[in-house]
Amino acid sequence: MASLHLTRPAVGCDSLTVLRERHAARAKGGEVTITTRYRPKRFEELIGGSLYWIIKHRLVARQTILGFAENAEGHCVIRLDARIVPVRTRPKRAHQGWRYLKGSDAPVDFEGGDEALTAMPPKMLNELAKLALI
């Protein structure tokens, strides 16, 4: 995994389930894109790293950064792997746009994998996340 990552609030998502549904609806060819006004200055270091999603002031999941492009309006397009990987949650204040995250500060992937998380009711997931158990 790359040594540099991004964090970004999952605006409008109150759970990991909502984020997954939103991205599944937009996925094409195993890839999802998000648009931001400006390309990160250190974008080359981010390729192969991950974008970590913040939901309810916690880092909860990540997606691998596949690359960067520019759209017709001149905005930056971040290409992400469509697979959302749950991570051991950690507190993180929401912020505008994106922020860099060093590899040494990144949370580790959730050991139970997607199957264990999707089998749990969303309310239970939220409570376990608040207690920093997942």
Automatic annotation (TrEMBL):
It holds the Pfam family DUF1489. This is DUF1489 domain-containing protein. InterPro entries: UCP032025 (IPR008320).
